[in-house]
Amino acid sequence: NRSVITSPPRLPRPKQNKIERERERELHCLSPEARAPPTMDDSEATAAEVTRPLLAVAGGGAEDEAAVPPWRDQLTARGLAVSAGLGVLFCLISLKLGLTTGIVPSLNIAAALLGYFLVRTWTALLQRFGVVSRPFTRQENTVIQTCVVACSGLTGSGGFGSYMLAMNHKTYAAIGPDFPGNRAVDVKDPSLGWIIGFMFVVSFFGLFSLVALRKVMVIDYKLPYPSGTATATLINSLHTTAGGQLADKQVNCLGKYFGISFLWNCFKWFFSGVGNSCGFDNFPSLGLAAFKNTFYFDFSPTYIGCGLLTPHIANCSMLLGAIISWGSLWPYISTKAGDWYPANLGSNDFKGLYGYKVFISVSVILGDGLYNLIKIIYATIKEITIARSKQGRLPLVRVEEDDEGTKLSDEDMLRNRIFINDSIPLWLAGSGYVGLAAISTATVPMIFPQLKWYLVLSAYLVAPLLAFCNSYGAGLTDWNLASTYGKIGLFIFASWVGQNGGVIAGLAACGVMMSIVSTAADLMQDFRTGYLTLSSPRSMFVSQLIGTALGCVIAPLSFWLYWTAFDVGNPDGMFKAPYAVIFREMSILAVEGLSALPQHCLAICSAFFVAALLINLLRDVTPANVSRFIPVPMAMAIPFYLGAYFAIDMFVGTVILFIWERVNEEECRDFKDAVASGLICGDGIWSVPSALLSILRIDPPICMYFKPSVGS
């Protein structure tokens, strides 16, 4: 069918003044020169607008602009209360995952579903007592989801399992005081005061850095933002008649698996004994010999739930990485004890096998991150060049010759109008960023004296460019590469400062960069969700601000619960905080150079770095039916340091998902997110009573452990 660019059909209106004409041009994203003559006369346009639905939502039905509540009505007291409660839950979940494996799956869909469940439950209870409450709209649901994700997202960008924890004395001691470049003066232990202060001065930049480009990213470039689109699809479906019936079943399913997960963790606690060597978490399900090499199934609902949410190729990649490292490479290097490294070293000494584990995994992570960074920057430049060749604008309205195409143009027209009408002033974004930069430039050096004011200022000058690259890449691929940009900042600033405080300066600069680029990508992801659910950008932006403010308090308090109740950072414990060691090692490496590496480690690291580049290249140049079987290097690298146990748990989850898809694909599609969310949330909420029991020094009554039989 032939498409022509035209003005959208509209009802006759009074003569417009100059300001109104400029607003009309902005809404249509078309310059006067680019406007083609209309293909319908005024009477046909009026009939088309009156007789056709303006927006076909998921599940059927129509909604017009008058039915969309004003942006202030989308922000409700009950919505903020639900957001705060879910923010606590999701912070606990994210921190537990970050401190154990460093893998935190996308929780957007779970936040939307749980928000729907809690508000619907609240309104149902009020109705029983004869209290009439306002209707629960898709816009309010979207705002709740946005606020929750903004709050819990700070557990990752805040560095509680990575750069911030890398500064503390435990990580320094784990690496060893005699390790080259690991100095006692480069230590800053956590405390709630400076952590909350640091979070407040760095966490809001990303919200102001790209808010002026929301129209460019969402409407002009039409970036898909897969997670945001999936969340919007779920929210739209929940707020229809048919979707409401399915939602009730999904909520019941989530509640069932939440209860199963919580009760299972309670049952496991009774057998976990004192320390970290007892219970089901140390069950040698594949034999004692395999258990010594971390090959065992530890009955973790969280990792099984993550396996249900994570793509098959990522789960299989982690298992392959575990087999390569713990099944082959580490046993081989351990035979070189006394030759490549001293034989009498401890299991966590970086001059021995432990050093190979950390540095080789770092090389794979850096190789994968560098490749994807270059790839996304190239794609960004290419797309911008194409857009500029088309005068930097994309047509918002296409009038097709068939009815379906016309209906789609009506949907886009209404979404675009709502998305643009409630604009966020440019002066607010600009002044907000400049004001925050001035405050942060003055306060961050007070928290980290090693990071001078001019270093902080230089970081804020380049951060918007990196935030744009990361947000654009996330829109194309759904990959948030904030940690990669943070590592780049770490290397640059640590080497810039040098031995006189370079380790702490690099880690702090990493935190500044990660906070900006991660928050900016999350904001654009949520703008995409709001665009598809007819939510106002103003309500979304305010919700992000509120969620970020909540996260600056809730995330540190949640971390402090783990920090005081458990032995966080112990390489042999449950909360290993694997990325804390990795980030500190990278900072030391940036300051000291390659002299810190064990013997032959540089050659092995170089080989794995190149292999990561080549595998990624192979994934891109091969056909889709072949590349989907090629492993992901980043996923392969995670078990190199952590062990194979969690990869086995997640592989169990992917096997369950694979079989479920083959047996009943529709049921799997409808309920897999609910099952996974229930398993993860039940395990996460158990961390609260578990932490309280630990603080009160109440130990489990039984220690269940395994040893070889006498005859064997």
Automatic annotation (TrEMBL):
What does the record say about its membrane topology? Multi-pass membrane protein
InterPro entries tied to this protein: OPT, YSL-like
Molecular function terms, GO-annotated: oligopeptide transmembrane transporter activity
Bias type Basic and acidic residues, positions: 17-28
Q: Which GO terms describe its cellular component?
A: vacuolar membrane
Q: Does the keyword Transport apply?
A: yes
Q: Which compartment or compartments is the protein found in?
A: Membrane
Q: Where is this protein primarily located?
A: membrane
> Region (Disordered): which ranges?
1-41
Instruction: Tell me the keywords, alphabetical order.
Output: Membrane, Transmembrane, Transmembrane helix, Transport
Q: Which residues cross the membrane?
A: 79-97, 103-122, 143-166, 192-213, 313-333, 353-374, 424-447, 453-472, 479-497, 503-524, 545-565, 601-618, 638-660
Domain of life, per the record?
Eukaryota
Task: State the NCBIfam families in the record.
Answer: OPT_sfam (TIGR00728)
The entry assigns this protein to a family as follows: Belongs to the YSL (TC 2.A.67.2) family.
Q: What is this protein called?
A: Metal-nicotianamine transporter YSL6
What is the organism of origin for this protein? Answer: Eragrostis curvula
